[in-house]
Design goal:
Elements (H helix, E strand, L loop, with lengths): L2 H7 L1 H21 L8 E2 L2 E2 L15 H13 L2 H13 L14 H6 L2 H8 L2 H15 L2 E2 L4 E2 L10 E3 L7 H10 L2 H17 L10 E4 L6 E5 L11 H18 L2 H18 L21 H17 L2 H22 L33 H14 L8
Antiparallel strand pairs: 1-2, 3-4, 5-6, 6-7
The structure holds glycine.
The site of glycine has 4 residues, from loops.
Length: about 375
């Protein structure tokens, strides 16, 4: 089936889901205007605005979500909340030692979106300044971007960083300096080589040498363990590689996006299109991660736009199947819950310190990527990344 036929067949569902998103988010955009939400407690958004929490890696998703909805609707309630979130986030610059590679997740989708949609020069400055901090994390001898602060983690790269490097592609174009793009591509090439396995599954954390190219060892990270495939890590690869393809036109990134996407699709099919937390974990106990599905759906829709006609159906239908399954199983459209997409997990089973298993939870980026995917299906070509 063609791309357009699949969209037409699902049009009613896409439109009604968009309407539900707009209804719910226009309400919470006002209710949570002075918050930077991460999850909800008893149905209410929490807020990560005080102390070092202000530099938390997910803090750009609320502002970014508001810009996505503003772009789609032009409603002031979204713009005002997005602009407020960006100002609150200036507090993170008081915690410069806490700042990590997730500046793309934080500022590019918030300040970058503001600059793209309104031309706000102050937003451009925030995006550019934080892109420069991302550049500073590059290890020249090892050819990777270091994920986190901390001496013990100085050699660590994580697959998630593929979603931060679009900020470097943007900065490269914005100031006409190829170095930003070259660093982004060096990192993407490293991720292809060291994070993606032959079968299309993905390693979350790779520990590299500090003074030469090469892998010291790999870590299971937020997945089940060493050698496993954390599904959100796989989703960062699917969306991240297609974004590198979009920004560079290099075929190898499209090929790798397809390879990781096929691995994800063939695995998620086995559980009725609802992603488990780790594709290589033992079959029981089974736990799910809605955020992995939402991120991957965005990546699959972009892949479908860039492959030959006879391949589009495979990627787009998988995205729609996943989104429809998640909407029916996990979306809460009620007024008593501020979040939308339930059943996210922070890491394999959200394991508590005592070893017991934590509960699934809504997480702000679940709502962000779910909304982004629906807006893409609705026809938006605004690429916030
Ligand atoms: N970037 C960390 C995570 O996906 O949980």
């Amino acid at each position: 089936m063609s791309y357009q036929n699949i969209i037409d067949q699902n049009r009613e569902w896409i439109d009604s889901t968009f309407n539900k998103l707009d209804e719910k988010l226009s309400r919470t955009s006002v209710k949570s205007r002075d918050k930077i939400p991460y999850t909800t407690k008893n149905g209410e958004h929490d807020s990560r605005t005080t102390g070092p929490d202000i530099a938390w890696w997910t803090n750009g998703f609320w502002g970014g979500l508001m810009w996505l909805m503003y772009e789609a609707t032009k409603k002031d309630c979204y713009r005002i909340t997005a602009e407020n979130a960006e100002k609150i986030m200036d507090g993170a610059f008081n915690y410069i030692d806490e700042i990590h590679h997730d500046v793309g997740f934080t500022w590019h989708i918030m300040s970058g979106a503001s600059y793209a949609l309104t031309g706000n020069r102050k937003s451009r400055d925030r995006d550019l300044f934080t892109a420069m901090t991302l550049m500073s994390r590059y290890n020249i001898d090892g050819e990777y971007i270091v994920a986190w602060p901390g001496k013990d983690k100085r050699g660590w790269s994580i697959i998630d960083c593929l979603m931060n490097i679009p900020q470097l592609y943007w900065a490269s174009r914005e100031i006409g300096d190829d170095r930003f793009k070259k660093v982004a591509m060096k990192h993407a090439d490293m991720a292809m080589r060291d994070h993606v396995r032959e079968d299309g599954s993905v390693v979350h954390i790779v520990e590299h040498y500090l003074d030469k190219v090469g892998v010291v060892k790999t870590h299971g990270g937020q997945g089940y363990g060493e050698g496993s495939c954390w599904s959100r890590g796989a989703s960062w690869a699917v969306y991240g590689f297609i974004l590198s393809y979009i920004h560079t036109g290099e075929q190898r990134y499209l090929d790798t996006a397809k390879k990781t996407a096929k691995y994800f699709i063939e695995n998620v099919k086995k559980t009725d299109w609802l992603p488990v937390i780790d594709f290589k974990a033992p079959p029981t106990p089974v736990g799910f991660d809605s955020t992995a599905g939402a991120v991957t759906a965005c990546g699959l829709i972009e892949i479908a736009k860039h492959v030959d006609d006879d391949e589009k159906d495979y990627y787009l239908s998988a995205a729609v199947n996943m989104l429809r399954a998640m909407e029916s199983a996990w979306c809460d459209w009620s007024e008593t819950e501020d979040s939308i997409l339930q059943n996210g997990t922070e890491r394999y089973w959200n394991e508590r310190k005592d070893g017991s298993l934590g509960d699934p939870m809504p997480i702000i980026y679940g709502d962000f990527f779910f909304a982004e995917a629906i807006l893409k299906l609705r026809g938006s070509d605004f690429l916030i990344w």
